[in-house]
Amino acid sequence: MGVTAMFLLLATITPFLLIQLKRPVFAVVQSVLLVGMWLYSFQIMFFTAPGVFSISWMMFYGSLIGAHVAWIMFIIALVEEKPATLQEN
Fold first, then answer.
1. Closest residue by Cα to residue 18 from 82, 84, 68, 83
2. Confidence tier at 88 by pLDDT (50, 70, 90)
3. What is the DSSP secondary-structure string of 41-85?
4. HSE-up (13 A, CA, CB side) for residue 45
């Protein structure tokens, strides 16, 4: 459950990364998916798990996949912005 909570928190930060990357449409989509993600996680913790391919199930996994893509985009933008300055001896 700890790993899932870590990914939930990382996904929650993702809209701010997308705003920094100047991708407001993706930030809005990720924010909408976050609502379903948190609803699904609370349903799992306190009630029974919703059915597979339900709306909250799709929002949960869509949000996690979107968050991973956004973090990769952020890392790539960060690396392109400040390339490593390694000098050969």
1. 68
2. low
3. HHHHHHSPPPPTT-HHHHHHHHHHHHHHHHHHHHHHHHHHHS---
4. 10
